[in-house]
């Protein structure tokens, strides 16, 4: 029996819908940024030495931005809202989005189930436990006060104030606190709101949780336990428990994530939620539902004595074998694999070895199968990672595209030894006479392996996708043209952009560059900076602010010049040509590297077709090519805010 994917909802870094999600993948947008201090302060938890106790050596992550949950829309009392982990509200919102996307003509709530993957609820519920630990903390402080001889009223006042300040960040404990911190309440909250009575529970397969939930849902649909199922996962856990823990086993990358690369050094953490709406294919066709892809097979295995934390080739091959036996075809007819691909040397080697050996057994001569991983765009979202890969693969089947993987420059040696398996580094049109088939893998601590097969809907062989032009939009560097009416205004702009550069994601470099170019217009004082990462942009903005040219030693004000021609150097008197004195020192060297005075430039041709950048105050208006970043409002301080971009003024602020 085949299962149909009829609806998709998701909130991942940079994407609030499945359409935005696949567009980001095709455009090569990567949402890694410096860890926001309000999520995990680097001053408290970062240390470059992996062996340093209670710290992590990774300070880059892909985080959600602008998520806003309105409890009034879902008839949630404020007291319940405050006492409940954000993971529950995120899942409820995404479930609502998925059902809206499915647009089911009829739904029997008594036969609709919700099965979600999750581990440890979320970071808010874990932090809330600290409130209960005050008696221990209070005893330790009291003993210290005894040692220092603090007694009487001063002691009592100090302990009272300490308790008040210690508990202040945490919601008061009430009748909603227990349910608000439980993992199983996540699907229960969805069932409660929509009155679904077909069953609701969580599954915990660590990083394979969400794909495992899809397998449970498919089994239930096949067995007739329910008629509609919502499956997926949610993970919001960028806290010390997981990040320090992963650092101590060497799983995190100290820099970039390089999936299936010979230079693999670990993963970068991410977060998010993805939920798919599933029905039996026959029912979906009878109801004339829109179908993204079908699921003909699924399988799971464990590594047995292979290990609890280290993956096993034989264990993963067993999951592949079971999935394709159920599907009724073998891996040799599959042309796309969305892998687990975490970027860890051992994990990538084991997974590629399992797929390569399976293809060697099943594939005919000349067959080619590409493999990639969504983690190169949004990091490892752990309990929500498997469904992120499923969404990527389903949208690829639906649009007939082969999606690219980012950061892969030196392919793993296993590719050279495999006649069929190759890394999907560029992407393109899924141009094949065969039925489009894909596979999705996910694995987790404890030795769990899962694999789900995907297939296009019969008779829906697609034409060239409108997503294909996005493949040409990715680039490795951006040029930032800054313009102002005066030397002082340019310096103010540079200083304001430093704050933005410290907070933006890699993908937002192009948005900020386009925005700066629009603001620069034909303003007379110019600065040009080339940067490939937010960190590079921040470093060069810092150097520019300290350079003599911007510090006032020399003026950057040009005289009128013909468009496209180089301008001579100028003195402080506007429009008067003069020779520019040679500057000296490190600051001058930095200035000559990243600063330049010129006439109004000819913008690169890749900008020619861009519409004017837009700014939106709503979180649904996503910053993407060619739009400029938006300014959402944040309901809760746990979420990092996007920087607001410079305004049209001589001294803009970020």
Overall description:
This protein is α/β, with parallel strands linked by helices and 654 residues long. 35% of the residues lie in helices and 14% in strands. The chain is built from 22 helices and 17 strands. It has helices spanning 18-27, 42-45, 78-83, 86-102, 123-132, 134-147, 152-167, 177-180, 185-194, 209-223, 240-248, 281-286, 313-327, 345-362, 375-378, 385-399, 413-417, 487-501, 509-520, 534-546, 548-551, 585-594; strands at 3-11, 33-34, 60-61, 112-117, 200-203, 228-235, 272-280, 293-302, 336-338, 369-372, 401-402, 421-423, 428-429, 437-444, 448-455, 478-484, 525-531. The strands form four sheets. The chain has an eleven-stranded mixed beta sheet with strand order 5-4-6-7-1-8-15-14-9-10-12, sandwiched between helices. A two-stranded antiparallel ribbon has the order 2-3. Helix 10 crosses helix 16 and helix 13 (313-327) crosses helix 14. It starts with a strand and ends in a 60-residue tail after the last helix.
Concise summary:
35% of the residues lie in helices and 14% in strands. It contains 22 helices and 17 strands. The termini are far apart.
Based on CA atoms alone, the radius of gyration comes out at 27 Å
What sort of overall outline do the alpha carbons produce when their principal axes are compared? Answer: globular
Helix content: 25-40%
Contiguous runs where pLDDT drops below 50 for at least 5 residues: 552-654
Structural class: alpha/beta
pLDDT averaged over residues: 85
Through-space gap between termini:
55 Å
**Portion in strands:** 5-15%
Number of separate strands: 17
- Biggest sheet character: 11 strands, mixed
Helical region count?
Answer: 22
Strand order across the largest sheet: 5-4-6-7-1-8-15-14-9-10-12
